[in-house]
C-alpha cells in the first residue's frame, strides 16, 4: 500500500502587547527602530507557564523559518548558549535547519542555515515536503508577508496585558484583510498573558447589518 504524504505545517509564533505591538519583546537593544523605548517589555511578565507552552512548540519543530533581522539576533546568541542554562533550546535550534528570508545575499554562518530563493511560494512548498513543523519566530516583516499571501497554517499569539503605544505591529493599518478561525485559547500565565491559536480561513471578512 502506498504511503500518503502529509504536507508539513508553517506556524507563526508571536508575542504582542494588548495594543498589538510585537517589537523587541526580548530586550532594550533588540530593535530600537522608530526610537522604540519599551524594548524588553515581555521580560518582566515571563513565567513557567509561558515557558512550558513555548517549549512544547520548540520540541515539536523540525525547522526554523526566519526574517533576516531575527536570524541575526538568534545567530549571535544561541550558538553561544550550548552549555548554558538554556542549553536544551540552544542545541535544538543548532541541530535543525534554519531558513532565512532576505532581500540581500547575507553570509549565513550559523550551522545548518540556508537562504530562501526569491520564489517564496515554491520555496515554502518544498519546505512543507521536507519538514513537519516549521516555526516562524518574531520576524515581523516576514510574518506580514506570510499573512498577506496566506502562506501559513497556524498563528500562535501570546497577548500580554500592557499597552505601549507606537511600535511595530504584525497587523498594520494598511495591511490586507483576512478571516481567521480561533482554534483554541488558554491563559498563559498568572500575570495575565493569554495564548490564542488561529487557523487560516482563506476568506475576506464578511459584513452585515445589525438591524
From TrEMBL:
The protein's name: Deaminase
Domain of life of the native organism: Bacteria
Single Gene Ontology MF annotation: 5-amino-6-(5-phosphoribosylamino)uracil reductase activity
Residue ranges annotated for the Bacterial bifunctional deaminase-reductase C-terminal domain, each copy included: 11-190
BP term (GO), one: riboflavin biosynthetic process
Biological classification of the source: Bacteria, Bacillati, Actinomycetota, Actinomycetes, Micrococcales
Amino acid at each position: 500500500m502506498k504511503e500518503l504524504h502529509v504536507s508539513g505545517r508553517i506556524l507563526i509564533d508571536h508575542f504582542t502587547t494588548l495594543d498589538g505591538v510585537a517589537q523587541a519583546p526580548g530586550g532594550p537593544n533588540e530593535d530600537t527602530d522608530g526610537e522604540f523605548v519599551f524594548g524588553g517589555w515581555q521580560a518582566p511578565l515571563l513565567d513557567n507557564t509561558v515557558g512550558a507552552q513555548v517549549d512544547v512548540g520548540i520540541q515539536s519543530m523540525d525547522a526554523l523559518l526566519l526574517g533576516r533581522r531575527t536570524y541575526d539576533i538568534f545567530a549571535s546568541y544561541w550558538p553561544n548558549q550550548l552549555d548554558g542554562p538554556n542549553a536544551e533550546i540552544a542545541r535544538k535550534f543548532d541541530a535543525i535547519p534554519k531558513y532565512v528570508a532576505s532581500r540581500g545575499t547575507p553570509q549565513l554562518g550559523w550551522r545548518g542555515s540556508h537562504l530562501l530563493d526569491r520564489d517564496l511560494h515554491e520555496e515554502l512548498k518544498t519546505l512543507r515536503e521536507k519538514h513537519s513543523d516549521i516555526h516562524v519566530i518574531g520576524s515581523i516583516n516576514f510574518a506580514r508577508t506570510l499573512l498577506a499571501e496566506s502562506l501559513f497554517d497556524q498563528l500562535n499569539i501570546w497577548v500580554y496585558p500592557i499597552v505601549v503605544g507606537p511600535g511595530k505591529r504584525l497587523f498594520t493599518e494598511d495591511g490586507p484583510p483576512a478571516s481567521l478561525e480561533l482554534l483554541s485559547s488558554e491563559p498563559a500565565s498568572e500575570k495575565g498573558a493569554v495564548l490564542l491559536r488561529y487557523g487560516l480561513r482563506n476568506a475576506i471578512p464578511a459584513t452585515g447589518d445589525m438591524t
